[in-house]
């Protein structure tokens, strides 16, 4: 068995001079990091340090920062030596001060933020702004140059890193993983991403597991298992781990330099061999396990208590400056031991011999264009979505599987952009189940593990990414989009909640990015939620949850879009729109089962462009005000509404019905709340100001109330939707169990339209009989009554 | 290095007769599994099989089932031989037919469901009910005897198993993990649970990684990495893996029997040694890697396409019975090759020699009481929560940290129940940060990895469980509760979204369990969400999300409870109430920072019992109708509301204000929607029918609208809350950025109360000045103005 590697002390690639300089650079970054956490004035410590120079609220995380600075310095060295393109993924995002310090040292920070210049005045601003009102956050954030990864929640560093290097053959993602983050589930499975990375057309991830031993108040699991277990674990994950462990800077610099030289050389060898012989076998990629003290170079003890190499270094190692004046002295000693006078000249400018250590231009990690992906973003070459139109001569006259039709469009998007390699489709083993299998006509499933002869469309260069981890799919896609490419994620509706929190973080990233002038727009994150709540009759209750929409609409209106196309042609239009959009999160909910098709392509474009509209062909209120408005959003609710309309036409033909279909859910919100919101005037003219509205909705009914409570006619709005009822049954029974079926909708109309008070009783008896018949039929035969499944809209 | 184990063929513990019988038992389970998927009549195949005997909709998952049946049969053997207490956790929950078949064979199924008797008529019902309307789901579910784990979402088998065996020293959880599930993040980190399992007072988990090679449409990662990597990975995770691999039943039965004998013996040895010498060192626990063909013993080929040992076996291996009559023949051959006539007598009763293979009574895995934990549940011994009361002589007169006070109560709950070992507290490294550190006065943090001298309250028998994985905390707690114990989960509010989907599954489990008479009530799942949105000023935007409440209230009203105690004494009362409750999910949101305390204990009990009420001492409408209602829910909104009331009293003393505080959020819903909902009459008398209501709410404001849109005075309701604004700033600035601060609330009142139209202009100018002063102060000094932080309620 191949074992892990630890270099001997004799491997010393740095000359004495180089060692001195790299250590000085590291000291400079550490000095600037401590300064950011503590100081608001006197940045070069020219005067004796006093309380007035120190921030009144001390915030930030020191513990992980010196390690991050150490890695940064060593990557500067190898980038410069070999002209590498590297982005730095800071898993321990709380180490924000380190990344800010380094990008300031290399010059990118001041280029982007000229008011924070590379001089004493700039250094003062750099210090003061950190974790200060009106300043910058304590984590790596959109504000941080060179970052595509916000620290904070933890768990996504490795999947982001892989997403970034897919289809970027010359890019290396230096991905630092904290040993706290390593305990999270999403991170624990993301290591397996190496089974999906192709050394020919993808770049490389160099994971650096940074063991500094402690979380907020506990040791970490990874720091307290044996070296043997640690080594086995990462060999088991498919890596070749190199250990760099210690605390003596001189020894550690040599070890780190030697190790990085070796791993970069291994990466290049792997890539060269794969690219020259074209054989994409899965190599054992190198990784580094770096063990350093938490709060390395910080105070060993504070008030007699162990601090360096302990959890007390996690955030601010000591505070209480007002009550303990000796702490001010301690801070001054700590900062001075980095010897700022050797590092910066009198104007606060980094001395020349250190300036030279950083790479230049876009080689600087803070300036790598992949970390501001919008600069590199190319529009997708889009086929005309009209070419895939389902021929609908008459509403309801044909059946179609919406997502299968969408699959044809996605297939050709994939084909048109194959050469530019900037489009991927993600899904947790569900691409085929979700009827998007047309993609496999032009590409395979990405797979670098073993392939057997009987395998189905597995391919080393496949562009459909399937792993049974929604977290990894989401992380890959975010990394891919943030580095300027395009993608699509299809998922079972219920299980997209698995990534609720990742969605939050991405939505927040987009919101802040939009406020930062130098961040260029990126492609939207597009979800297709299918295998949705109404067709989980075979899987049952545990697979039913339409609440992701509720979760999404809590985020800023200028970020999120929710579409519920009722048929294939509207889905085609919406898909095209989403793939062309920027800086949004688009949620599309559409079924995969055969369903009646309603709109021909011209009508679909018109309808979906408006986002909401009257379906005149299903309404009979043309000459007059309606007696009732029947609204619907979602494919199954649309079918049930139209079926209910059919029953009503048949039984109470003089009832005037207006049918409204909603594709773009955000149209329901007030105009002031969402850019797509209807004006009150338009809303009133559609939904009337005083007629009953029976609204059949795909998800939890109260969401419709939450969107419309300010509308004039809200008091007459009655919403049906999913109310957590359901089990293993038939498709139609699912809607019956939630009172969303045609029969209940008819009853709802009768209960609310005064003119039906007399004729209604008869119709309600008919409905009761039908529901009893339905119940008897399904429990006897196990399937829906033929008249339900073969139902046609009466107008068809 | 200790390497993995694969037994040689010479290790054959089963006699020929035993081998024949165990194989026959397995055939019986397989026969019954296929029967459930396909048949609705002719269960013993006494007549030639025809279309009428076959269900019209074929649902269910065959692929994993024969493997599950194989394991079950072998556990029956070892349980019987050694009188073990074992529960069976079915990670591949889609293998529902297997568990139903086995519990029917052992008799538990018919005891619980007498209409599904152990005879031909019962077998017919057993078959028909499966995945049939009105029948049972296709997964393991609450309906399944012996199960605490619903299949479906995947990811939680291992954490559930560990949760089940904590504090159950004699229990073994046989935990089958599918190789699909093994790709999920939560599962990938849950393997590390062995660092928290104490062999002295906990039971054992025997993980069985079942490699059957395929997911829905793809191979699995774990089946396509090298044997060497697989072995290393699990050694790295701290296990000693035993491999059982093959497809020949005779060989496989011997290997499995020999392996199980060895691993059970190893488990017993580990436990005996630890328990006799009292030294709780972390052992290398055994595990099994079982590699069998997917759809083992099913049809090799269907229509010329590979089926056994391939993804085509995942669900129903073949269907199209109407159009392909040869499929009926194939099904009959398949079922008959199990030779049902040797397994069941003419009445469908399992033959005597096979009946004897199953354990008896509670030793049957379907009847293990731990899997119906409510039977074993003992009430917690509760100290009187009044003993921890904060002395509040006058509202607002003292500061207190609510969660710290709660920590004293939790400490004593822990202490009182230490001997019964049925209470644990979970949290992702945040117990101390969340100010619950009093717990460490009586117990430690559970830790079985390496302990260093400087470590802080780590202990092998610690009862506070901390791992930086919300998924694992949640999974452990669910397993612990489902087996009849009590617990508590404290978490940062924003990051509880990580387990949104796990919450869904547990809520659904509870909903269904309540409808099953033989499932006994279990202790509620209690969340404390602290470090909440309003005090993330130091962490910033990425740590701000109060939306878990929105997520929770989408679930069934009889399952969920949401509490927002405004101070320590109400929190004490609510905590007591939650710890005594059953079958709920209780969400408590409370801050950890010093805040004014409002209610003495008597007032707190009265207020929190009602859940909502007027705070007369803060109101001045006693003699009359108010001009405005100022409502609040949550600790920070309560403070801001009272501060606004103070300002209003000062500036417009003749304004009549009614202050309402909401502790129990569900009181706002209509009575028909939630058992805690106020009647319309009560709501109207509190909130008036026509006065403006300014509602300061902890979370997203629209949730209040969604809960109250049917109330009479909803049109006058104006809600302030979190609207996704925030950054690194000061605590007070966080509320300012979201318009929830005292100044904006005052402005809201002025804008809505007609009688203030004249005096209001002056007050609004005052407010504008204050907000400018605030902005200048914080950007200069980096902290809140003293008058904000030192603010006292004017009545105090």
UniProtKB/TrEMBL annotation, chains A, B:
Pfam families: XFP, XFP_C, XFP_N. Residues 592-793 form the Xylulose 5-phosphate/Fructose 6-phosphate phosphoketolase C-terminal domain. One of its GO terms (biological process) is carbohydrate metabolic process. Residues 15-375 form the Xylulose 5-phosphate/Fructose 6-phosphate phosphoketolase N-terminal domain. Gene3D superfamilies: 3.40.50.920, 3.40.50.970. The keyword Lyase applies. InterPro entries: Phosphoketolase (IPR023962), THDP-binding (IPR029061), Transketo_C/PFOR_II (IPR009014), Xul5P/Fru6P_PKetolase (IPR005593), Xul5P/Fru6P_PKetolase_C (IPR018969), Xul5P/Fru6P_PKetolase_CS (IPR019790), Xul5P/Fru6P_PKetolase_N (IPR018970), Xul5P/Fru6P_PKetolase_ThDP_BS (IPR019789). This is Probable phosphoketolase. Its cofactor is thiamine diphosphate. Keywords: Lyase, Thiamine pyrophosphate. It comes from the Bacteria. PANTHER family: PHOSPHOKETOLASE-RELATED. Its EC number is 4.1.2.-. GO terms for molecular function: aldehyde-lyase activity. Belongs to the XFP family.
